[in-house]
Amino acid sequence: MATWLNLGLQDSASPLMEQLNFFYDHTMLILIMITILVGYLMTMMFFNKFTNRFLLHGQTVEVIWTILPAIVLMFIALPSLRLLYLLDEINDPAISLKTVGHQWYWSYEYSDFLNIEFDSYMTPLNELAINGFRLLDVDNRLILPMNNQIRILVSAADVLHSWTVPALGVKIDAMPGRLNQTNFLMNRPGLFFGQCSEICGANHSFMPIVIESVPTNFFIKWISNMN
Ligand code: CUA
């Protein structure tokens, strides 16, 4: 989860988020180079006395300063496109999970396991443990096995919501009348927090997501105690 002064992206907990992190760093580096170059050129424009009274056109330099930025942008566009297709790939999932956004909570269904289903509400402040995570913890957490491909099917019952878990690189809209699909793989155990990220009404900020990533045998133990 994000803590104080964490202004960039969170550490990845999935291979796709790792790729997103690499792409972010790559793009920021190009951005810094462009900013330095343009900044340098702009300051030099202010602090010199060059004049050219006979300047009417400069075809050559215009061709250069049109094509060069286009080439630079290709270095962002191509990796971006690669990631876009990588994120959409469904890699033979071991588990399918269904999640439905409501005003204002998420409900989950494990349809592979005798259709276990439950609602997941934010823990109210007066019930929060002393070391609990304010506005981020829920009463019923999603328990999922690590190192397994997990497919999530996302929909909504009332208005637009968005199922967003930054550490996993998952952000997918939950829309009424539509079933969206994405997938992820958690490569370490831990708690991964997320929040709704479509403005969905008065309590939009209060429908968090908590995933407990556990080893597969723990998950099997948990799921067999559910019914
Ligand atoms: Cu649901 Cu914002």
Commentary on this structure:
There is one protein chain. With 227 residues, this protein is α+β, with helices and mostly antiparallel strands. 31% of the residues lie in helices and 26% in strands. It has helices spanning 15-46, 59-87, 216-224; strands spanning 95-102, 105-110, 116-120, 142-145, 149-156, 161-165, 170-174, 180-185, 190-196, 209-214. The strands form two sheets. The protein has a five-stranded mixed beta sheet, with no helix packed on it. α1 (15-46) packs antiparallel against α2. The model has no long low-confidence stretch (mean pLDDT 94). The chain binds dinuclear copper ion. Dinuclear copper ion (CUA) binds at residues 101, 161, 196, 198-200, 204, 207. Dinuclear copper ion is lined by residues 101, 161, 196, 198-200, 204, 207. Belongs to the cytochrome c oxidase subunit 2 family. Keywords: Copper, Electron transport, Magnesium, Membrane, Metal-binding, Mitochondrion, Mitochondrion inner membrane, Respiratory chain, Translocase, Transmembrane, Transmembrane helix, Transport. It catalyses: 4 Fe(II)-[cytochrome c] + O2 + 8 H(+)(in) = 4 Fe(III)-[cytochrome c] + 2 H2O + 4 H(+)(out).
Please describe the topology of this protein.
Layout: H1 15-46, H2 59-87, E1 95-102, E2 105-110, E3 116-120, E4 142-145, E5 149-156, E6 161-165, E7 170-174, E8 180-185, E9 190-196, E10 209-214, H3 216-224
Parallel strand pairs: 1-5, 4-10
Antiparallel strand pairs: 1-2, 2-3, 5-8, 6-7, 6-9, 9-10
Helix pairs in contact: 1-2
Bound molecules: dinuclear copper ion.
